[in-house]
Amino acid sequence: MNFASAFRAAALCTAVALLPAATAGFAQVEGRASPEFARLFATYQRIKASYVEPVEDEVLIRGAIDGMLASLDPHSAYIDGAALERLETMIDGNYQGLGISVQMEDGAVKVVSPFRGSPADQAGVKAGDFITHIDGELIYGLDINDAVAQMRGPAGTSIDLTIFREGRDEPMEVTVTRGLIELEPVTWELLEGNIGHVSVNEFSRDVGVDVKDAIVDLRTQATGRLNGIVLDLRRNPGGSLDEAVALSDLFLSDGQIVSQRGRNRQDTVYYEAETVYRGDVAEGTPIIVLIDEGSASASEIVAGALQDHHRALVMGERSFGKGSVQTLLPLTRDSALKLTTARYFTPSGRSVQEGGIEPDIRVPQLSDPDAERRQRYALRESDLRGHLVNEIDYDDEALEADRIDDPRFQLTAEQLEEQGVDDFQLDYAVRTLRRTTGIALATPPAASRN
Predict the structure, then answer these.
(1) pTM (2 d.p.)
(2) What is the pLDDT of residues 337-346, one digit of tens each?
(3) Are 177 and 122 in contact (CB under 8 A)?
(4) pLDDT tens track for 90-149
(5) CA distance linking residue 345 with residue 325, whole number of Å
(6) 186-449 belongs to which homologous superfamily?
(7) Angstrom distance (rounded) from CA 301 to CA 286
(8) Which of 59, 76, 127, 238 is the 20 to 30 A CA-CA neighbour of 10?
């Protein structure tokens, strides 16, 4: 099965900045039905009366809802039952399973990202992989909820996955032992040279607090001053808009963080520094932000804010390019609409929609032998069917600039492995911070700190 030519119509489901609805009110339908409603009702009646087999009302109504939302953009959706439970689990909780985020793409189950340290991650499952079989049974065309249900199970039990990976001719057979997945949105470690590496894996509840605690702990571990911080947002598909604002505010002492601009005046909101945290928790410490094509939504808000305020140097690959905000609007006790209600803009007025965040220094992931092939087929916002168009036009040359070879990065994965480097992007960022110890790299200019 060749998925390289698959339609790119599915949304990156977890790449959203969710904003809780302020109220649960519903818009009231006008008293007189428009001709469009009359056509919808006439279609419903024809199907009920003439279709070859009886059709339940629930099937027709759900189909109409899904059709309406599919005509809008890739990130608006109707969520109920198991899908709503999964969303709530992603926000806070734990479960037993493989530890991967998946989506449907052209009838196939595609891995958005394995959680760092999860059973799937340890077994070698990568972002962009297509899972075609579970325990030898074909799951192509299966409902996403059914596929997820098969992958979850008691910790300690094993599951066999057949994986199709772009750039490889033959499918891969992978055995994964399920585990208890404790969602860890933030992990950190102190590296040689008193460099802190803080990984933000998703923007669930209390991410801002967790990163603040991480920096306090890194300073305690450091022998002397903390010489730099690598804020790792790679493969982070997004999450809570409020947590993106909180994380940005940790490192900014003045100015705007992000603005969201919607159809109505009440949907236009400006988020300013000093509203969540006072001061810069890492004042005087250089910061490098790592991003890649899997960094989306809330990740792009943070990277864009720190880049625009010259508080951090952004490295890696161009980000996903999702510049819209989704609001979770409850419908019933167990259903809701995830509806696109606004676009967001960085402090300088940039929209990342389609174009994404361009790194200050493009650093390819040379330590991954499949990285170049996956980059060729990388799915970004601009590839999704029905995506919102950026209000500021991007020309093709600008969008493709990050694929031009750079003479600085010529080592192969095998050569890096011999040198003991298993993450070239992180290694490059750390070495940059070590070389610039004592130099104000990516710190606020004096004029902005008065």
Answers:
(1) 0.71
(2) 989 888 999 9
(3) no
(4) 555 567 789 887 877 777 888 877 877 789 988 989 878 899 999 999 998 777 777 888
(5) 10
(6) 2-enoyl-CoA Hydratase; Chain A, domain 1 (3.90.226.10)
(7) 19
(8) 59
* Mean pLDDT score, 195-209: 92
Q: What is the pLDDT of residues 52-102, one digit of tens each?
A: 999 999 999 999 998 898 888 878 888 887 777 766 665 555 677 898 878
The amino acid at residue 440 is: A
Pair of tokens at residue 232: 């790792």
| CATH of region 83-182, choose from 3.20.20.370, 2.30.42.10, 3.90.640.90, 3.20.20.150 | 2.30.42.10
Per-domain residue ranges of the chain: 33-79, 83-182, 186-449
Phi, psi of 70 (to 5 degrees): -65, -25
What is the DSSP secondary-structure string of 114-175? Answer: EPTTSHHHHTT--TT-EEEEETTEE-TT--HHHHHHHH---TT-EEEEEEE-TT-SS-EEEE
Question: What pLDDT, in 10s, does the model give residues 12-53?
Answer: 333 344 334 333 333 444 445 578 888 898 999 999 999 999
* Residues labelled as active-site residues: 297, 308, 322
Residue pLDDT, tens place only, 305-340: 999 999 999 999 999 888 888 888 889 888 889 898
CB 437 within 8 A of CB 193: yes
Q: Which of these, 360, 376, 116, lies nearest to 236 by C-alpha position?
A: 116
* Nearest to 356, CA basis, from 287, 295, 426: 295
Residues 6+ apart with CB under 8 A from 56: none
Specify the amino acid at residue 407.
Answer: P
The sign of the CA dihedral 96, 297, 386, 267 is positive
Question: b/e for 130-150, b at 16 or more Cβ within 10 A?
Answer: bbbbbeeeebeebebeebbeb
Per-chain mean pLDDT for the chain: 80
